[in-house]
Amino acid sequence: MFDTQGLLISLEGIDGCGKTTQAGMLQSKLEQQGIPFISVREPGGTAVGEDIRNLLLQSSYSMTINAELLLYMAARAELAEQFILPALLDGKNVLCDRFTDSTLAYQGYGHGADLQWIRQLNHQASRGRQPDLTILFDLSVKEAVQRRGTKVDRMESNDFYYHQRVRKGYLELACSEPYRFFVIDGSLSVEKQGLIVWQFVRNYIDNRSETGTGDEF
Ligand code: TMP
Question: Which helix (H) or strand (E) holds 87?
Fold first, then answer.
């Protein structure tokens, strides 16, 4: 079904895990190798999505879990429709700094929203397109909190136990779909993680070109 399409690669992890630094490094590698891709982040990446991002992260509103969850979905629907799906159809790879698993981990495992409902909404917002590969940067909450420093946004200001549930959620998701997730130790040096990520992605892309199909992913 997706044989001529690009690959959708998502990067996930708790706040402070270092995934955005790694996203930048991976982008540079892809550029150097002349591999066609676009890079996006969630929430954001569209006019509406960036406004939603500010509402979710920078505002001091206290909001219900369902409102929070649906705002993330609205941002996702915009981004998928406007950028992700057209790029994939055009044969470009898409590097996504957070995607559907963030909602399962943060609103589902973290806040207790119904996982089945989130899966349905994810399906609609992304038009059924799942990531082919998800790289999870796993780090203890203690270390992530130290890295984050004192200036925190609305989501980061959730308590320690919330972030522990999110981490546990991510690890459960990774265990339930081992063929999609690649889990990396976020406490390794930035350079070492960069090397491991690049080797894995490179092999993944090469294997896919050799088999000529993405159906099995
Ligand atoms: P980040 O772009 O710096 O990672 O910030 C995004 C924040 O939003 C982060 O705290 C994770 C959170 N988030 C959710 O809670 N649910 C979601 O579906 C997404 C995409 C992000």
Answer: helix 85-89
Residue 74 lies in a domain: yes
Domain holding 147, by residue range, is: 3-211
Task: Round to whole Å and give the CA distance between 73 and 70.
Answer: 5
Instruction: Give the H/E segment covering residue 181.
Output: strand 181-185
Q: Which of 114-128, 154-168, 202-216 has the lowest mean pLDDT?
A: 202-216
State the closest ligand 1 atom to the C-alpha of 42, by its place in the atom list counted from 1.
20
1-13 pLDDT, tens digit each:
446 789 999 999 9
Is residue 216 included in any domain, yes or no? no
Ligand 1, atom 19: nearest CA belongs to which residue? 102
On whether residue 217 sits in a domain, the answer given is no
Tens of pLDDT along 126-169?
Answer: 999 999 999 999 999 999 999 988 888 999 999 999 999 999 99
CATH number of the domain where residue 125 is located:
3.40.50.300
Helix axes 190-211, 19-32, angle to 10 degrees: 50
Question: In the chain, how many domains are there?
Answer: 1
Residues whose beta carbon lies within 6 Å of some atom of ligand 1: 15, 41-43, 57, 72, 98, 102-103, 106-107, 155-156
